[in-house]
Amino acid sequence: MKIILENEQFIRTLKRMTHEIIEKNDNLADVILMGIERKGMPIARYIKELIMTFEGVDVELYPIDISYHRDDLKRIDGNLNLPVNIDGKTIILVDDVLYTGRSVRSAMDALMDFGRPAKIELAVVVDRGHRELPIRADVVGKNIPTSVNEHVICDFDNKMIYLN
């Protein structure tokens, strides 16, 4: 395994991403962070804390379960409840790694079941390329060109990114 980002760089990257989110959104009161279950949620939680530290604004944060909307798994037991009205809000989807774009598409499909946001933005720690859908992140921590055989591991607990 090759280490791409270590602890200090990882934290610096998340701080920079948070500043980009703040700069892109004049009214943080209309922003809702949504962490794509499972790996996007700890990152979204950390960004929420950083926004509070930098701006003193407590943005809303919710997990989004995309399992019901995935095209590679047919499940009917996904979480279909969202305890917030998203109409007219800026939704920032947060995930660890952007690869084919299919998870993001599933998250957007899920959001559309709950309402009509004013805008949906995407923040990812790593963009590794290989898109199968025309999806682009608005905020990217690090671009890491990879082969299809490589795997990017975003280890939030240890604040490291590996290439395997």
What are the segments in which pLDDT stays under 50 over at least 5 consecutive residues?
none
Mean pLDDT: 92
Structural class by helix and strand composition: alpha/beta
Radius of gyration: 15 Å
Beta-strand portion reads 25-35%
Q: In which range does the helix fraction lie?
A: 25-40%
Q: What is the count of helical runs?
A: 3
Distance between the termini: 5 Å
Query: In one word, what is the shape?
Result: globular
Instruction: Please give the number of β-strands.
Output: 8
Topology as a string of helices (H) and strands (E) = EHEHEEHEEEE
Strand order of the largest sheet: 3-2-4-5-6
Biggest sheet descriptor:
5 strands, parallel
How would you characterize the overall build of this protein?
- This protein is an alpha/beta fold.
- Helices cover 29% and strands 28% of the residues.
- The longest helix is centred in the first third of the chain and has 18 residues, at 7-24.
- The termini are close together.
Features:
three-stranded antiparallel beta sheet, globular, alpha/beta, single chain, 164 residues
Give the SSE map.
Blueprint: E1 2-5, H1 7-24, E2 31-36, H2 40-55, E3 60-64, E4 90-98, H3 102-114, E5 119-127, E6 139-143, E7 152-155, E8 160-163
Parallel strand pairs: 2-3, 2-4, 4-5, 5-6
Antiparallel strand pairs: 1-8, 7-8
